Amino acid sequence: MNSHMVALNGQRTLLSRVMGGVLSLLAVGGILVTIAAFAYGKNAARQSFDRILLGAANDIAESIDIVNGAPIADIPVSAFGLLSLAADDRIFYSVRGPQGEVLTGYAGAVARDFTHDTLTTPAFFDSTLQGERARFVTVARRFSERDFSGAVFVFVGQTLRARNAMALDLTKGAVLVTGIGGIALLLGAFLVIRSAMRPLEHLTRDLSHRDPYDLTPMAADGPAEVAVMVHAMNRFMQRLDRQVGAMKHLISDTAHQLRTPVAAIRAQAELAIEDDPAHRAHRLERLVRRTRSLGTLLDQMLSRAMVIHRTDNAPPSAVDLRDVALKVFEDRDHEVLAPEAEVRLEIGDVAVIVMADEISLSEAAKNMLANALRHGTSPITIGVCADRGIGEIWVQDAGPGPANDVIDTIGQRFERSAASKGNSAGLGLSIVRAVAEAFQGKVHMARNDQGFRVSLALPADHSVEEV
Amino acid sequence: MRSLLRLWRMSLMVLCLIANPAMSQEASQRFIAKDATPSTVLLVRSTTDISIFAPALAAFVAANPSVEIAYEQWGSNALYANSLGACEGTATPADVVISSGVHQMVDLVNRACASAYQSEFTAQLPAARRWRDELWGITREAAVIIYNTDLVSAEDAPRTRFALLDLMRRSSADFMGKIATYDVEASGLGFLFAFMDSQEATTFGGLLEGFARVDAVATCCSAEIIEGVDSGRYKIAYNVLGSYVDTVPHANLGVIYPEDYTLFLSRAFMIPKGAHQGATAGGFLDFLLSPRGRALLSQSTLIHDSNSDETAANESATRYIPIGPTLLVAMDRHRRARFIEKWRDSFGVDAVK
């Protein structure tokens, strides 16, 4: 049992596999969401701060007046108030005349040339501000005064700290929400998967706690997949149980049935040694009879064990009962058992097909014939007939058959009386009965006008019959 | 404080106190801890008068004997020009620049002339007193009105700008040539105060008109103005840095924190980009922002205690000059030109001494 547990611990459980899968899916999703959130955050930050930049540039452009023929800016504090919303960013601003000459503000070179578009629409561009990456906007204001005509350009730029911080903030928020959602999903998935796997867990626990000698069926509740598994396992255990039972029976029968004849043989042998030589021949003859009888008993016990083994292991196949009867007849065992008896074969020309195991059927038929030879009256007939979906193989003798009370008890697994007498009528019929049970058949015993008939009736297989 | 001053006097060698006009440098002094042989020289250029700043400097070198402070006192405009030159590589950079011309310092930071520094002390500063971790406000000084208590009666003393306006209208003859304020062209600080006034309230236009009516005097330098009022040359001075008032002998000075609003300035501390002793400069900044440094600056009146009686009722009238990019407007060429033009119209060229 411990070795089982160790073997199980060495492998990953289904739950951990599924959770691993879910986790990696969520991780991939999380990475994608993070990338998307960062892109979104960057874009949102750029749009927001571009608007601020443009607002400041427009403020400055609005403040420009033409004084004595020259454009003079009255830079409003509000413009820088706007820009200082990005609290830690450095600012560039420059008001330049039509030829690009600096009117006020910073003098540094501006990377961008004026284009015609700039005159009507604000132009944003990326550049650097004293080595730091920065974003700029150009706004033009056109004057058509008597003493000044032309465009004045306002450049406003700002470094990117606040933008990056905002993008990072948005990303962080999104990642936080995604993370919380992911954890909730993971938790939910864990609970759902665990509850779905509970029947399997039960099964695992039941199996690992189960006594290896316990072959009773297990409860087959839970989902269909598990029920199928449990059913299969139960079937397997039932078979195992039957075989173990058969083995137990065989052993106990053998013990029961062999002890008496073996003791008798030993007694005969000892007597033969000790008796005076005049009686030795007689003693030896009895010893031989006893020995032969023991041989028959052993044969039958082994054949019964084989029948039980086969009925559990060999799948049923279509068998023609006439073949079985013919084979038993042609084996001519009866010539050895009872050379004086007359044995006939009575089979028709129509096949009688049943689903069974041919070897088991042969053993059953042989035993039926042997019983008739041993206890019945010649002539003895072995025959096959089919009637209303039932195929029958039967053995009939001309005698009256056993007494009625014997008929009732006959064919039990063993009969102490029979065994102690050294014969084995009970065993022979019990083989027939075991075969009948294995293939959903019945054993009939009846007297009729011609004598006593024992028959093994099995359901006929129509599908094959019609072919 | 007294023991500390004594310690400073005993332990310091005053090496030199010379004027150096070629450098636009007003005075300089070296601070070395007693018996120390410093390995590092921290070059501090500041607009703050040496005498006011000395206790803090002395305490710093006493705490850090390996450091010698070479302190140079500059005018704010000259200091700005010098720092800009250092930034562009045409002058030797200082290790620390401290200026009351906060707008000039903001401009220097905006031109990427400063290096960043962060510590637990800088993190404690309110947002309005630091920018980009490159500029920090280390003091808290008020712009006040002072008057000569012998020449102006207590009931005449203007407690608000409106009162000053009324006074100048009502008795313009009494105050003819007797009202002084900073020359905005010569003093960065004076320009900053005036500029903030112009943004703060409409009274500024009236004030300029009033100054014009009484032929007010625009002059330079806190010490000179304070001395002028004390001696009776001026009856009233407007927008004088309050921190300087206590440091000069003044037998008959009245100090008014205007009740309509009082401007508060925080001297800006910057570590220039090319500073050779950046780490020591950071240590110096931390020292100034530490409780001990603040206590020393408080004793030197550089940190004005708002809980004192004079301003207790006046908290809502407090206006800080925020250290931030909005001050760049004060540096704008056109804006400045317009402002100074307006100023000149009021004072007249001859009023500027």
TrEMBL record, chain B:
Q: Does the keyword Cytoplasm apply?
A: no
- Cite a single Pfam family from the UniProt record: SBP_bac_1
**Which organism encodes this protein?**
Celeribacter baekdonensis B30
What is the protein's name according to its record? Family 1 extracellular solute-binding protein
Q: What span is annotated as the signal peptide, if there is one?
A: 1-24
Q: Which PANTHER family match?
A: PHOSPHOGLYCERATE TRANSPORT REGULATORY PROTEIN PGTC, THIAMINE-BINDING PERIPLASMIC PROTEIN-RELATED
One Gene Ontology CC term in the entry: outer membrane-bounded periplasmic space
**Top-level taxonomic group:** Bacteria
Q: Which UniProt keywords apply?
A: Signal
